[in-house]
Specification:
The chain has 4 helices and 3 strands. Helix content is about 35%, strand content about 20%. It starts with a helix and ends with a strand.
Length: about 130
């Protein structure tokens, strides 16, 4: 019966953990890391804690684990606690929109160095670029 079930089920099943694995070394320090991350939001940009600085603070408090584990935990915490960056996808109709600009550059033409003017147009739909000098 099990072989027939495996053959008939075309999509492989993915493994999901029923209970999260315990963080034996980091577990007692997770609350402290979260406190530092919340405090980080209030600090001026140049004075904020880096993940390395958080690791050093925890080591001074007795943490014996690795720095990479701290970085993993901080990344996961930020992923769940920070709002995602939003963006609007731009959609263009064919032949309707273009971006244009004039510029100046130094070019070597026939062995002579000279300043040239150029026109650049980028079509938004196809993202093709046209340059005229």
């Amino acid at each position: 019966m099990t072989i027939q079930k495996a053959i008939s089920d075309a999509s492989p099943r993915t493994y999901t953990m029923t209970q999260p694995r315990p963080a034996i070394v980091l577990g007692p320090y997770q609350l402290r890391v979260e406190e530092l991350l919340v405090e980080n939001e209030q600090l001026p940009r140049k004075q904020r804690y880096t993940s390395h600085k958080i690791f050093e603070l925890l080591q001074a408090e007795g943490y014996t684990g690795s720095e990479s584990r701290i970085r993993q935990y901080i990344d996961a915490w930020r992923h769940t606690h920070q709002t995602p960056k939003l963006f609007l996808p731009l959609e263009y109709e064919p032949g309707m929109d273009a971006q244009c600009d004039w510029g100046e550059a130094i070019a070597i033409i026939g062995g002579v160095r000279q300043t040239v003017q150029f026109f650049v147009m980028r079509l938004c739909y196809s993202r093709r670029t046209l340059v005229l000098s």
